[in-house]
Amino acid sequence: MRLFTTANLRYPITVTRLRRKPGDALEQNQALFSYQYRLQVTEGTRDDPDSEELVERSFYSDFTSELEGTVSTLHIKEGDVITKRALVADIEEACTHSTQYGGICVNCGKNMDEVNFNTSIRGTDRATVNTTHANTALLMSQDEAGRADEEARRRLLEARKLTLVVDLDQTVIQACVEKTLAAWKNDPSNPNYEALQEVRTFDLVQGNQLVPYYLKLRPGLETFLREMSELYEMHIYTMATRDYALNVARIIDPDQKVFADRILSRDESGSMNAKFLKRLFPVNTKMVLVIDDRGDVWQWTPNLLKVKAYDFFVGIGDINSAFLPKRQELDAAPVPKTAKHHSSDESRQIAEDAKTVGEGDGDKASAETKTNGTVSAVDHMVSMAGSQDQETMQEKIEQQSQDLESQIAESPLLQKQKILDAADSEAEPSPAASAAAELLAPNGDHKTDTPPQDAPKYRHNLLQDDETEQAYLSTLGQRLREVHTAFFTSYDAALPAAETGRIAALRPDVSSRKPTLPDLSAIPDAAHIMASLRHRVLTGVHLVFSGVVPLGVNIHNHDTVIWAKTFGATVSESVAKKTTHVIASPERRTAKVRQAAKRGGRVAIVSVQWLFQCFMHWRRVSEDAYRIHTDATVNGTADLPNSFDGRGVLLSSSDESDVLTEPETETETPANGTATKPSSNLAIDTDWTELETHRPSLDRADSNPTLTEAPEDWGSIDDELNEFLGSDADDSETESVLSIRSADSPPSSSKKRKRGEGEADPDGDGGVAVKGDEEEGSRLQKRKKEALERTSSLTQVASAAGAGESTPSPGVDPGGGEAEEEEELEGEDELEGDDELEAALAAELDALEDE
């Protein structure tokens, strides 16, 4: 142990004498060396205060050791000046007090709680690590814990084993305290009688009474524990009390061959809100895996292999979760209407929907009022841990006792069975029972037309294990074998190659050598291996959750979403072009579901059970058996409900407002920084029916009318444009002449003609009345014919055009006093002059071509 000077010495100090030399024994509080230090003091006489002065004097003292043992090395000599805290000696202690029990050194029996004036390090600070399961009073130092960890890892490597930490409640078992189960278990006529024959029981003292606990083992647990114990050293880590954990262990491991005494409960955990691997493995966790139905209490450590919660006792959940944060459930589906006959799965669904009855109402209401959408990750972890002061812990203990008493008094399973029986009483008899009754009467004869009045009705059982549960632990065992195999394959590959062949033959003493210890430096990380195996399952899968995450919950903090990300999935909040799957509720046709349906099968709309199957099998299972909303057409509008009134439907938080989707023609920027154009053959989903509903029904108006300016009359403008352009009967030569004319001089602008008093507006909107195409065409042909009879040239046409422009039109009154009829004639004459000019040019061109 290294001995340092203390911080309260009056530095600088000068070593004047060494009181001990290397090899000497040194007791606690015995002097190691003497030293000198200088200090300014005030000197003077008592009678004359003015004689006081500040002078510097030398003082002498001894440095005493707080350690005891033998001096092995001195790092100082006489005359050395020490200016700050420094190492002065190495002391070989007779006892390092590295292992303590209740403040007493296990090796020497010294009380480590004692302190004196010379104590700078408390004796209890030497041993702070607890690695035992059953007792928190046994502590050891970090060095001692490291040595123990090395021994444990070498022992596991020699046995080719890893470590597996197992949770109890809703991972491998589920417990319930409802007294109704005792009556059901002893009543052969009860529909749950057969399922309860596998339920075990034990009693615990709860308050002042003895409470019976009913324990249901997950199907296949015995085989699972036996097979996994050959590959893993198994530990129990539960947030239940130690008495509860010991009773469960006696049932699932009666011979103590699987878990032995490796049981850690909340009484020894050190935290009643969260679980930590460092509690059991403070030095190294590379060979440790965890199976638990809760990921949040482990802070989603990479060593965790999360499993689906076991829920045999419907709606009971984890009876030991009073100290844990509320479980993040998926949003419950709306209660379906009772059908005439229910299958086994449908009956269980009705029982699930009955969770909101009785005590569940308060929990659901409180859960819906809480939101964590704006809580940061750090705040989320702090809030999850909660307060752990003595008062808060006592309140939670009392709350758990009240919950158990409430479960005993209210009998929630009995209430759910009554709901199921009520549904059965309104339903038709079972098809199988009806078929049998039709064949034979109670006395063996053929059934008569009138059924007996006292015939027993078919009742559905509330408690049952579905087909998935029958094989769940078996599948979980396969996954653990894969990790075990991959771990030791990687470990063996990292070991140096053994000497074989001629080199080994030349060394005859090789066989007599002591076998080498396992190489701890070659140990891979089991967490990284498991992560690589899981991540490939959903790599490339882009998920969108819709209608399954409760309102007010940040989707990226939800357990199911985090679970999906550990398998390599990418989760988005809106449907985009990269979306491959929409995880939705069968009872809710949300906006995101409709968006996915518009993509014509490119996005798979599946239930959350598809995700659970992928998690279970560690592979991407087929979506066919889990597709929902398959009746939706390409535009996503088939069989959509007009409203959700009376159906108890809630949209997810992201579906409350309009759905935001990324553009289908999003450009991608490659490494060179040049944006690529969207593909021309990209299929764009166009819902013409939906667009037609948004088509404006009013006439088109000016885009920006003002208070002082009326909207433009577009109908009148179109009529004037058609009148100016003329008929479509014009041939190509006429268009050529127009182009020549437009190059020489600007075209004449058509003027708006005024109608006579008796002329009606054919459009009825105040526009200009125009003549038909037939009348305009005949007039142009007439002018063209007259122009062909003349003898003219292009020069004459040009001079005639100039003369026509300089000569005032007949009938024009300089004073502006012409009548309305004369103004109309004037406009017609101008139009006719233009027509004559065009016809003359066309005729001249035809004559030139004929020559």
UniProtKB/TrEMBL annotation:
<feature type="region of interest" description="Disordered">
    <location>
        <begin position="386"/>
        <end position="405"/>
    </location>
</feature>
<feature type="domain" description="BRCT">
    <location>
        <begin position="533"/>
        <end position="628"/>
    </location>
</feature>
<feature type="compositionally biased region" description="Acidic residues">
    <location>
        <begin position="655"/>
        <end position="667"/>
    </location>
</feature>
<comment type="function">
    <text>This promotes the activity of RNA polymerase II.</text>
</comment>
<keyword id="KW-0539">Nucleus</keyword>
<feature type="compositionally biased region" description="Acidic residues">
    <location>
        <begin position="818"/>
        <end position="835"/>
    </location>
</feature>
<keyword id="KW-0378">Hydrolase</keyword>
<dbReference type="GO" id="GO:0005634">
    <property type="term" value="C:nucleus"/>
</dbReference>
<feature type="compositionally biased region" description="Basic and acidic residues">
    <location>
        <begin position="355"/>
        <end position="367"/>
    </location>
</feature>
<protein>
    <recommendedName>
        <fullName>RNA polymerase II subunit A C-terminal domain phosphatase</fullName>
        <ecNumber>3.1.3.16</ecNumber>
    </recommendedName>
</protein>
<dbReference type="InterPro" id="IPR036420">
    <property type="entry name" value="BRCT_dom_sf"/>
</dbReference>
<dbReference type="InterPro" id="IPR036412">
    <property type="entry name" value="HAD-like_sf"/>
</dbReference>
<dbReference type="InterPro" id="IPR011947">
    <property type="entry name" value="FCP1_euk"/>
</dbReference>
<dbReference type="InterPro" id="IPR039189">
    <property type="entry name" value="Fcp1"/>
</dbReference>
<dbReference type="InterPro" id="IPR023214">
    <property type="entry name" value="HAD_sf"/>
</dbReference>
<dbReference type="Pfam" id="PF03031">
    <property type="entry name" value="NIF"/>
</dbReference>
<feature type="compositionally biased region" description="Acidic residues">
    <location>
        <begin position="710"/>
        <end position="734"/>
    </location>
</feature>
<dbReference type="InterPro" id="IPR001357">
    <property type="entry name" value="BRCT_dom"/>
</dbReference>
<feature type="compositionally biased region" description="Low complexity">
    <location>
        <begin position="739"/>
        <end position="749"/>
    </location>
</feature>
<feature type="region of interest" description="Disordered">
    <location>
        <begin position="654"/>
        <end position="835"/>
    </location>
</feature>
<dbReference type="GO" id="GO:0008420">
    <property type="term" value="F:RNA polymerase II CTD heptapeptide repeat phosphatase activity"/>
</dbReference>
<feature type="region of interest" description="Disordered">
    <location>
        <begin position="355"/>
        <end position="376"/>
    </location>
</feature>
<feature type="compositionally biased region" description="Polar residues">
    <location>
        <begin position="671"/>
        <end position="683"/>
    </location>
</feature>
<dbReference type="Pfam" id="PF00533">
    <property type="entry name" value="BRCT"/>
</dbReference>
<feature type="compositionally biased region" description="Basic and acidic residues">
    <location>
        <begin position="691"/>
        <end position="702"/>
    </location>
</feature>
<dbReference type="InterPro" id="IPR004274">
    <property type="entry name" value="FCP1_dom"/>
</dbReference>
<feature type="domain" description="FCP1 homology">
    <location>
        <begin position="157"/>
        <end position="330"/>
    </location>
</feature>
